[in-house]
Design goal:
mainly alpha
Length: 197
């Protein structure tokens, strides 16, 4: 038994994670509940996210501006100063006009979905790796989602960001629950390396 643990130090780590699997399971459930709340109140979540992003940009711009004047003898001072001003001004505009910020973010996401989906679909179709159909299908879904977002602008910008955050939290919570269940099914002090040995 002891020699097996010396041969594979991961056994103790897996046992430690198993001992905390209850907390992992609880975190997964809480993330799912939080994700569901974000989906139900997707408009409020969208504006909260946009405002938070605006404040982060504003504060980071102020910090960068202060730092720019502290190192003003540096040759890249003006470039650093312009970056700080641009960041701070963008943050101020997002806070002042959160609807416009939500529209801009949704436009960027829709464009990302369309371009990324097209590349994924074309790449999967040309390379035809194993199970390439799933990759091509996911690319088509991304393109359709991007087109739907653009077609429903500006209405989609009010709810989509909050909805997407909610879906992401639900998926993250589900993965934590799956991990907690999987780690409990692994026998104590046995790992894949032990089985291979």
């Amino acid at each position: 038994m002891a020699s097996s643990q010396f041969a594979n130090p991961l056994s103790a780590g897996i046992d430690s994670i198993r001992n905390h699997s209850g907390w992992i399971l609880t975190a997964g459930i809480l993330l799912i509940l939080l994700g569901a709340a974000c989906i139900v109140s997707d408009v409020a979540t969208t504006f909260a996210t946009v405002l938070l992003f605006g404040w982060v940009l504003l504060f980071s711009g102020v910090i960068a501006l202060v730092n720019a004047f502290r190192v003003k003898s540096w040759s890249g001072f003006f470039l650093y100063l312009l970056s700080a001003l641009f960041r701070g001004f963008t943050g101020y505009l997002i806070i002042r006009y959160p609807i416009v910020g939500a529209i801009g973010a949704t436009l960027a996401l829709a464009s990302f979905f369309i371009v990324g989906g097209l590349f994924r679909t074309v790449g999967a179709t040309m390379m035809k790796l194993p199970r390439w159909g799933w990759s091509a299908f996911s690319g088509v879904v991304s393109v359709v989602l991007g087109i739907m977002l653009l077609a429903q602008m500006p209405l989609s910008s009010i709810w989509f960001i909050g909805f997407a955050i909610g879906i992401d939290l639900i998926l993250e919570g589900a993965s934590l629950i799956g991990f907690a269940a999987a780690i409990r099914s692994v026998p104590r002090s046995v790992t894949y390396l032990d089985r291979a040995a």
